[in-house]
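User:
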Amino acid sequence: AIGNPFGLERTVTTGVINPRVITVTADAKTKLIGQADPVLTYSYSPADLMSGDSFSGSLTRMPGESIGSYAINQWSLTLGSNYTITFIGDHLVITGFYYIPVLFRR
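Assistant: Predicted structure:
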């Protein structure tokens, strides 16, 4: 038998490819009581996603229509299995109409 004349060995290397971490930050929103909800938007960083990758899904907020503050949550927003999202929520604030009494003198 001739053996291995070039001294080459076959090496198998295994590794773990971790998903890329993206931080998504919800934008604070406000509305007047009785109005439709504004579109819930967000920003993210780092801003350079891999070519062809994009967000799908949407944000949501806690239910309620009374004056107050309602948490905005990640709900179905995703980038797929190549990313891990760290979500920073904010709030939708519902405000009321302001009544300012005006006194007239005659």
